[in-house]
Amino acid sequence: MAPTKKERTASRNPSLVRGIGKFSRSKMYHKRGIWAIKAKHGGSFPRHEPKPASAPPPAVKPPKFYPADDVKTPIPNRRKPKPTKLRASITPGTVLILLAGRFMGKRVVFLKQLPSGLLLVTGPFMINGVPLRRVNQAYVIATSTKVDLSGVNVDKFDDKYFTKEKKKTTKKGEGEFFETDKEETKALPQEKKDDQKAVDSQLIKAIEAVEDLKVYLGARFSLRPSHNQVSSSSSATNLTGIVATFAFCFKLKASFPPEAIVLPFLVSVTLTSSGLLLTITEGFRSMEGPAKVLDLD
């Protein structure tokens, strides 16, 4: 809808002749209500500061040249670090399966969670060769197997225990610059070897108390062709589906003509990863034409 044009209102002080109004200046002062505005603000008219015509000049003059390298400024972030939440399926003594790293596929025993959020695990080393190490819980699978850790003491192990010592490097002279560096063999400190033996001796006692647990930890996890991906709990559901398939396949979309000769059922059974695949077809041969096959639901 188009806006309506406002009507022009007459002036409060009509002109008698050109340049001379009907009312005087003091009379118009009263008619316009300026006296009320002045009385409201304590006997003086309110004054507003004028808006600046342009932006104020900067306090510091910008430089004429800028550095060639970009300077990264950190983005403000109010996020505070919180302790990593441990999965409910991982408790002290749970047997885990490593999914990545040097010992991928090995089974290890979870000992405790470190302040950094990483998991402290061990093979033990005497069983499958996995030493005391830290792993991320995102790269493990928790099993239902548990190991009793009542006699295992792991209080001394923290994140600082696994940090590497930084070696001080010295600048080489002209003569040493062209010399080839000799590869030094990194030997594990004797203190860490003793700690590994102490933890293994306590763990192995609890492992040997459970039948076949030592063999289970020593075996590497892997998927084999003989593994059935269908769980045993769903076997009853699969059997019900097979019976329903038989009953459903007997329903035909078309009826047989009177002169048709019904052939025997053709049933083919295929073993797949998700169960048995049944293919049931029924055909008929007409006296006047070639053999036909009916579609089944």
TrEMBL record:
InterPro entries: 60S_ribosomal_eL6 (IPR000915), Rib_uL2_dom2 (IPR014722), Ribosomal_eL6_CS (IPR049633), Ribosomal_eL6_KOW (IPR041997), Ribosomal_uL6_N (IPR005568), Translation_prot_SH3-like_sf (IPR008991). GO terms for molecular function: RNA binding; structural constituent of ribosome. Residues 1-10 have a biased composition (Basic and acidic residues). Keywords: Ribonucleoprotein, Ribosomal protein. GO terms for cellular component: cytosolic large ribosomal subunit. Pfam families: Ribosomal_L6e, Ribosomal_L6e_N. The keyword Oxidoreductase does not apply. The keyword Secreted does not apply. Residues 53-65 have a biased composition (Pro residues). One of its GO terms (biological process) is cytoplasmic translation. Residues 3-52 form the Large ribosomal subunit protein uL6 N-terminal domain. Residues 1-24, 40-86 are annotated as: Disordered. Transmembrane segments: none annotated. Belongs to the eukaryotic ribosomal protein eL6 family. This is 60S ribosomal protein L6. It comes from Musa troglodytarum (fe'i banana). The lineage of its organism: Eukaryota, Viridiplantae, Streptophyta, Embryophyta, Tracheophyta.
